[in-house]
Request: fold
Amino acid sequence: MEARNLIRLSTMKDTKLVPKTNKEKAVELFATNPDIKVKRVAEILGLHNETIVQMRKDPAFHQMVQDRFMLELENDVPSMVSALKREVLAGNVQATRLMFEYMNKLQKNINIYH
Reply:
């Protein structure tokens, strides 16, 4: 998985999206490889472990990782909806409810009487 992401980094066509700084590259690696270790990021980027540890102490760094992760997740939405559809067609009641909620076809009513 890491190699795939490194290839993607070097082949992106929109230069605005290609990480340029080590911090941006670290964000990309952490966001697209949730199980990656600090040591591995440091190895890939040719940095000391402590440099990565210091980056991770910055709350803004974590927000950047979260934002990048959400962007990556959005790319997977069509596949997730297809998987949900397969579950619905297989008779999964919870999946059916979720699909109707996703399509705004399920209305939750809460009535409170005195």
